[in-house]
Amino acid sequence: MSARMLAPTGRAATGRPATAAAQRAGSANGTVLHIDWTACDGRGLCTELLPDLLRRDEWGYPIALGYGSDVPVPLALHAAASDAVALCPRLALTLRRPA
Length: 99
Prior knowledge:
- The protein is an alpha+beta fold.
- It has helices spanning about 20-25, 45-50, 80-85, and strands at about 30-35, 55, 60-65, 70, 95.
- The strands form two sheets. A three-stranded antiparallel β-sheet has the order 4-1-5, with helices on one face. Strands 2-3 form a two-stranded antiparallel sheet.
- The relative contact order is 0.29.
């Protein structure tokens, strides 16, 4: 299944990633995408599904500038984040609500 068949990612018309301030403002529901670095092997599917949140480093691992393992998910990207969690081949992603 290709990423194009999944729900839209909410990418801005400019094609540029959202700024950290915009991500924080849009994550009113408090959901965060947690990346389990011990399970991830850098296949990059999550970066394809969430280009506004994640980039790939030189080894293929997802990175979110300004965040560590927990990346705030804007409401507009919640469906794409759910797809990324469901399709991660290493089960390295989870959606969480902070305590």
